[in-house]
Amino acid sequence: MIEIKDIYKSFSGNDVLQGISGKFEEGVTNLIIGGSGSGKTTLLKCMVGLHQPDSGSVLYDGRDFTPMTYEQRIEIRKEIGMLFQGSALFDSMTVEENIMFPLNMFTEQTRSEKIDRINFCLERVNLAGKNKLFPAELSGGMKKRVGIARAISMNPKYLFCDEPNSGLDPKTSIVIDELIKELTEEYKTTTIVVTHDMNSVMGIGDYILFLHEGKKFWEGSNKEIAHTDIKELNDFVFASRFMKAAKDKF
Amino acid sequence: MNFTNFGRYVLLLKSVFRKPEKLKIYLKEIAKQMDYVGVGSVGLIAIISTFIGAVMTLQIAFQLVSDFIPKTIIGSVNRDSSILELSPTISAIVLAGKIGSAISSEIGSMRVTEQIDALEIMGINAPGYLILPKIISGITMVPMLVIISMFLSITGGYIGGSISGAVTPAEYLQGITTDFNPYTIVVALVKAFVFGFIITSVPAYEGFYVRGGALEVSMASTRAVVISCISILVCDYLVTQLLL
């Protein structure tokens, strides 16, 4: 479980996060949603230590990450897997080398053990046999899946996904969402997905934290999100004509 | 580079020299970088050094018009100029353009495509993994390239002098072997070591802190080469002042 308490973060006097708190349970898909500029990616970066919050704390199963030294953080980071918005695959390496990279750095496995693990991860994301391809030879959806394979290669306890559907067609988006949900349930990871994709919200949002202008406006599940009377949330959820029409119909 | 940038540069270097996560992987990366910085630059350094040596001989001969000055002096002036100044400095400036821009672009592209963030999230010391092998390859391979450059520059002087008739081979050979002070080689290697550090660490710093996209990466690359060249010239003066 990951708990965030009263996170504040500002850049050059601009308050991006203003006292965000929340609890993200393991084995369920936790979503941080909000419009562009609402602070969701900044919150994610504060949680994984890419940004240092001005105040507040991030607890990984009770371990306070924020005041930790560089060396202490490494131990927690070994338990983290992350899928980046642009996949962030190392473009000088093949798919196999990308997934093998954390295994090379942090395990003493033999080469055949590592290859077995890579093949398992690739099969898990339906990319078996693509070991020798370079990122430039992959489609956007395939890159995301390789990103997921790399993120799960070390059996992470915590899985972070930054806008996993950005730039993908609706069908591929659903494939990625379902994959994230399956992996979360299968490995009981604490999964946090930052998104503004309403298909993801309705499809996999077991717990949803809604941010607006750097503040937490609402939290709940995908079953509750359509029945609130919070204007900012409704403006976000029903921004598209399709969602508006769906709301009017039901 | 203002004081804030200099402070960040020093802090980055502090992170670069943290204990490597796995030495074997770092050694592999160092070997790769040595190949790129060293072996990959031999051709360029060879061409430049040979021609500079040849041109130097012709220009020294042109300036020494007095019959009272022996022609052997052409060889010794060319030798000392090549060893002390031309080989280390010109090589470093050329390498700053070739290697510096490549380092800055590579690391900058990794920054804007979140590859550096990915390394950090994995628990890898990104400055150490990305920059340390480049600095080690710079401080080891640039002195080697400078040694090659010295040899070829002096050889280029021999060839240029012989072809043009500005100096006879015998006079040139006598010049380069007369009153040779081996300490000049030490000074040149110290310079090469310092320059090797500059042309790898400064571009790495510029690339590491890029924010934005392709335009910012290219601007960082240009800035890296300019700052490296200026730093090389300033350090050239300082090292010369200190050691001679």
Automatic annotation (TrEMBL), chain A:
* Entry's Gene Ontology molecular function annotations: ATP binding
Name all ABC transporter domain ranges.
2-238
Q: Which Gene3D superfamilies match?
A: P-loop containing nucleotide triphosphate hydrolases
Any one Pfam family match given in the protein's UniProt record, by short name: ABC_tran
Q: Which InterPro entries match?
A: AAA+_ATPase, ABC_transporter-like_ATP-bd, ABC_transporter-like_CS, P-loop_NTPase
Q: Which UniProt keywords apply?
A: ATP-binding, Nucleotide-binding, Transport
PROSITE patterns in the record, alphabetically?
Answer: ABC_TRANSPORTER_1, ABC_TRANSPORTER_2
> Which parts form a coiled-coil structure per UniProt?
none
Q: Which PANTHER family would you find in this protein's record?
A: INTERMEMBRANE PHOSPHOLIPID TRANSPORT SYSTEM ATP-BINDING PROTEIN MLAF, PROTEIN TRIGALACTOSYLDIACYLGLYCEROL 3, CHLOROPLASTIC
Under what name is this protein listed?
A: ABC transporter ATP-binding protein
The source organism is: Pedobacter mendelii
